[in-house]
């Protein structure tokens, strides 16, 4: 918050860096999904699980670290955006607004995530009850949990591109002007112009997010290839 008084010019660069990270995370998730081998049947899945050399505990830790890292970036993005919005306000206003956002994020976002994580545990607990009604609810939760996780994974990945791409869109003038010109152009289409014009910014933000994520991944891949060579020199 102190930096918002002395270095307000840092807000946009921080937003762009956070946006690039979100886009990179989105691309990484897609590539990981595409390159993950899928078992053809239950037997193959069981064999794959038995013979895998991956430490499942380490795998879970990596997933948790990735989730925490992404949540941290999203939280930082929200804080920076808020600081930019109330940049001209008094210190009391900034403290009040940021405190309210912190409470809402903690209770709302992380509470919702905790509920999702424990959904299968709740379902398992209900299946162990004597009541047939509770057992049916438990079995329903157990069946619904993986579907919900899949949906949230897809929605979350799309949100990374939309948020990251939107930030980059507004930060780079020629992309922002291109978006405005595109909206103005498609709005002249008879009958559906207004609908297409409303959707166009979202589509452009999504495309910008994917391209930015691919670019960041390319740069990181090049650095990983070059760095060992340069360190040996």
From TrEMBL:
| Name of protein | DUF808 domain-containing protein
Q: Name one GO cellular component term.
A: plasma membrane
The protein's matches in Pfam families, at most eight in alphabetical order, are given as: DUF808
Keywords (A to Z) from UniProt: Membrane, Transmembrane, Transmembrane helix
Keyword Transmembrane helix appears in the UniProt entry:
yes
Transmembrane intervals? 6-24, 72-92, 98-119, 140-168, 203-223
Answer yes or no on keyword Membrane: yes
Signal sequence range: none
The lineage's top-level taxon is Eukaryota
